[in-house]
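Input structure tokens:
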């Protein structure tokens, strides 16, 4: 049950990214994407999901945050998928509601192998630090489609964009931790199809 780790690298003309992911970690994050706010969010993701995560990314952030944020999502999604392995014994589903001061975010995950994203969150600013707020949805779409997860993100309310984003990433971490968790009652995978 332990040792669910992966290391994924991806290099394009726009980015060069390596990610290490341990599903059974201690919450240690060593993140360097060149986008300060994304580093902050992914450090929170590691801590609140009890994942060990290392990401080193170099990208064309002189253009904007798009390519780097999206490609980090691609690589992280691939790393999550690889670490999950055959998914035998895992709960498959995870949900979390996380408040951050005035903001409340709900995240629901199904590690079904079927990629889908529902993203209902409104931001008032164009950017938080050097990260464009539009990139939050792009990041999570990249994670979901490369991990093969159904991912629903709903912000019930919130006023401060930083708080909204932080609630989302923390809720994502907690929901994923639950979905990747083991249940000794599960034989094989949690599906009547016999495959995920």
């Amino acid at each position: 049950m332990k040792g669910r780790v992966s290391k994924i690298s991806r290099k394009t003309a726009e980015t060069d990214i390596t990610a290490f992911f341990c599903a059974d970690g201690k919450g240690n994050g060593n993140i360097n994407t060149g986008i300060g706010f994304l580093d902050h969010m992914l450090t929170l993701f590691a801590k609140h999901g009890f994942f060990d995560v290392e990401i080193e990314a170099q990208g064309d952030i002189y253009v904007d945050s798009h390519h780097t944020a999206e490609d980090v999502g691609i690589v992280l999604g691939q790393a999550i998928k690889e670490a999950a392995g055959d998914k035998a014994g895992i709960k498959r589903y995870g949900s979390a509601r996380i408040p951050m001061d005035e903001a409340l975010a709900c995240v629901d995950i199904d590690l079904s192998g079927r990629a889908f994203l529902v993203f209902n969150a409104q931001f008032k600013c164009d950017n938080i630090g050097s990260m464009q707020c539009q990139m939050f949805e792009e990041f999570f779409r990249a994670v979901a489609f490369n991990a093969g997860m159904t991912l629903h993100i709903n912000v019930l309310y919130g006023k401060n964009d930083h708080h909204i984003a932080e609630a989302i990433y923390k809720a994502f971490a907690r929901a994923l931790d639950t979905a990747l968790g083991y249940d000794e009652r599960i034989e094989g995978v949690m599906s009547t199809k016999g495959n995920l």
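Strands lie at 5-11, 15-22, 29-32, 52-59, 93-100, 103-110, 116-120, 127-128, 131-132, 150-157. The helical segments are 36-49, 66-84, 134-147, 161-180.
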